[in-house]
Specification:
64 residues
Length: 64
């Protein structure tokens, strides 16, 4: 719904630029953690951890 869209956009606005990039690559571009790691020059595991932290941050904001 339009209300949900607004809430999601507000939540995304709270993220740092690199966190938004992570969301874009993982969920909109459907990239693997390996690809994300290569792009960001980090390990695959580090990419997983960073993605998990961004998701946790978004969930926290969405559950307010």
């Amino acid at each position: 719904t339009e209300e949900n869209r607004k809430i999601l956009l507000d939540a995304i606005k709270t993220l740092k630029e690199d966190e938004v990039q992570m969301v874009e690559m993982r969920f909109f571009e459907k990239r693997s953690f390996r690809e994300i790691g290569e792009i960001l020059e980090i390990t695959e595991n580090n990419a997983k951890v960073k993605a998990h932290r961004v998701i946790k941050k978004l969930r926290k904001h969405l559950n307010k």
